[in-house]
Amino acid sequence: MRIGVIIISIIVVAALVVTYVMMFPINSYGETIYTPPPEDYGTSGDYDDSTLTFPGDEEEEDLLEPMLMITGGPIRLDVGQTYAIPFLMTDFPSGTMAEWESKNPAIAVVSSDGVIYAVSPGDVEIAVRAGDKRSSVLVTVNELKANRIIIVVDDEIIKTGSNSYEVSVGDVTRFTAKIEPEGAKVDKIVWVLGNGNVASLSQNGEFVAEAIGATQVTLTAGSLVDAITINIVESGVPLATIWDYLKYGVIILIIVIVIIVLIVILASRRKKEKARMRAMAARRRKEEAERRAREEAAAYEMRREPQEPRPPQSESRETMKVSGTAVGAGMNPPVDRKTDLERPLTLDDLE
């Protein structure tokens, strides 16, 4: 019976102790944190308990740690390729910039925004920094593989087909090899001549036409191959060149004919224009002559109209020579001719 009472008492005491301890939070160092309530706590209905601070109420932003991480795994590129490195950058102070770095720019270089350019084969570490955080990635640059090889022919050689050309005996030319894509490397380039009886070909691409005939020039680089056909003709003007001259001659002839036709058309138009101008000038001269004729006829008619007689002028006695016998006989007295011309005609003169 006593043992039961003791056990119950211990349980009750333990419960009270636990309840008391839970009323006061304990920090990470084991110290009890006690914030006494304000003096008016529970005495006023206007009290706002939201102003009390408790552990864990700090702003979440203060607890976030800045993070910087390149999200992609190891990167493999070919020479000449570019690639934008994906990365994650969070919870840094405003204005924090990421800084990129290449451990070996001879293999790959990186821009300020994280774009890498593969320069030459090899492995290189690309790193990014922001604040006190750093992340890096391994970049492997593979040698650029060639996928095509082309024989480059001098422009002076006459082309007779898609892959055939024509040269004359004694001509010397130089062929070159073009690798695609640009910057790719091949192990070894080999030049092969099909017919050694008509020409010779060195390993640097020099071709010498020695006799009339045809041969094939082949270029190999590993598994890549390109070939052309060369026709060697007698020295002089090749037939292909003559045909080119004929084509150019026909084109020039057509141009000359077109120019002549245009000149004839322009000359004809100019001739018609001159004829029209001459006709207009003749018409204007005719109209002017008719107008003058009408004016002269009108003036002539005006001169022919009778004029009113003027009053007779007094005759000077000094100029009159009258014979007494004539006056007495009733005859007209003689008149001086000079005076008679200046006076107007009268009825006596008409009689």
Q: How would you describe what is shown here?
A:
With 351 residues, this protein is α+β, with helices and mostly antiparallel strands. Among the domains are: 56 residues, no CATH class; 81 residues, Immunoglobulin-like; 93 residues, Sandwich (Immunoglobulin-like), CATH 2.60.40.1080. It has 5 helices and 19 strands. The strands form 6 sheets. It has a 5-stranded mixed β-sheet with strand order 11-12-19-18-15, with no helix packed on it. The protein starts with a helix and ends with a helix. 8% of the residues are buried.
Fill in the CATH topology of the domain at 148-240.
Answer: Immunoglobulin-like
Approximate strand percentage: 25-35%
Radius of gyration: 64 Å
What is the rounded distance between the termini?
A: 207 Å
Task: Give the overall silhouette.
Answer: flat
- Known CATH architecture of the domain at 148-240: Sandwich
Order of helices and strands: HEEEEEEEEEEEEEEEEEEEHHHH
* Order of strands in the sheet with most strands: 11-12-19-18-15
Instruction: Tell me the total number of β-strands.
Output: 19
Low-confidence stretches: 26-49, 57-61, 315-331, 335-342
Structural class: alpha+beta
Query: Mind summarizing the main beta sheet?
Result: 5 strands, mixed
List the helices and strands and how they pair.
Elements: H1 2-22, E1 67-70, E2 75-78, E3 82-84, E4 87-90, E5 99-102, E6 108-110, E7 115-118, E8 122-130, E9 133-142, E10 148-152, E11 158-159, E12 164-168, E13 172-174, E14 176-180, E15 190-193, E16 199-201, E17 206-209, E18 213-221, E19 224-233, H2 239-304, H3 324-328, H4 337-342, H5 347-350
Parallel strand pairs: 2-9, 12-19
Antiparallel strand pairs: 1-4, 3-7, 5-8, 6-7, 8-9, 10-14, 11-12, 13-17, 15-18, 16-17, 18-19
